Fold:
Amino acid sequence: MKNFKIALIPGDGIGPEVIAEGVKVLKTIERLNSEISFSFTEFPWGCQYYLENGKMMADDGIEQLKEYDAIYLGAVGYPGVPDTISLRDLLIRIRREFDQYVNCRPVTLLNPSLTPLKDKTEKDIDFLVIRENSEGEYAGAGDWLFKGKPEEVVLQTGVFSRKGTERIIRYAYEEAKKSNRTLTSVSKANALNYSMVFWDEVFEEVGKEYPEVKTYSHLVDAASLYFVVAPERFEVVVTSNLFGDILTDIGAAITGGMGLATGANLNPEKKFPSMFEPVHGSAPDISGQGIANPIAAIWSVSQMMDFFEEEQWGEVILSTIKTILTEKNSITPDLGGTSSTEGLGNRFVELLTLQAAKKQLVVN
Structure:
C-alpha cells in the first residue's frame, strides 16, 4: 500500500471549487486501486485568512507542511489584499522555503478546436517549459532609495547563482535526454549583459555533458514570436523565472486559455514537498457561480501522479481530459459548454473509471 499525504490549500475565489474536483479525482483513484491511498489535510490559508489574522498563513505554516508528500494549491489573490502580499507571503514563500526550484508547465494542445492559431494541430503544439522557480528576477532583492524625493531610485536585482542556474539547466537537459527531445534555452544576453550572458555560458557548459541533446537558443522576444507563429519549433524549453512566467501564459493562450493552464513546483530531490496548482488565478468575478473550469486543477493531479511515479495514472488522467473536451455538454461555459464545475467533475470521474478499466489500472 502506497499512502500519500496531501496538504490542501484551496485558497481564494474559485480555488476551493476547482480543488474539490481534483480531490474527487484522487479519491476515485483510491477507490479503483486498493494499492494507493491518500490522506488529506486542509489549511484555511489565503486572503480571507489574511484579512482576519494579518498574515497569509500561520506562523508555523512551513513546519506544518513539511510532513506532507505534496501540496495541492487552488488559487491565491482577492480584492482588498495587495498582490505583493498574497503572492509573496504564501505562494512564493512556499516555493522558496521548500526549494521548489523547478516549475514545469506543459504547453500541450489537447483539442484542435481550442487554439486560436490558424492551421495548428496537436502535433504542432506539444512542448514543456521548465522555468527556474527560486531566484532570478523574483528573488525579491533590491532597494528603494530617497522615497518620495525628486531623486527617488528603485533597484530590482535579479539573482542568478551558479548553483541555481546550473541545476535548472541540468534538469532540463536530463528531461530532454530522457524523452529524446530537443532543448531550447531562452534568454536575453544582448541586453542583460551580466545575468543572461552568465545563463548562456552555463547552458553551453552543461550541454557539453549531453552531446546527444540537440539544442537551440533564442532571445526572449524572438521566442515569444515563435510561440505564436511557429510553436512546432519547441519540445523542451528552459528559461529564467520572469521569462518563464510570461512565456507560459502565451503558451496557455495558444492551447485554450488559462482555464487549462497547470503547473508543478518541484523539489526533485524530494527533500521537501512539491506543490501542484492550476495557474489561472482566483477569478473572484465568477467565484461561487459554479461555472469555474476545473480542468487545470485536474491536470495538476496528473502532474502529481507523475511525480509520485504513478505515471500510468498521470497518463490516463490526461487521456480522460482529452476525451471530456469532446463532449460539449460536459465542459464549462468558458470552453463553449453548458456544464457546471461539479458536473464536469462528476462526468470526469465516470470517464476516468471507464478508461482506467480499459488500461487495467483497477486493482481490487
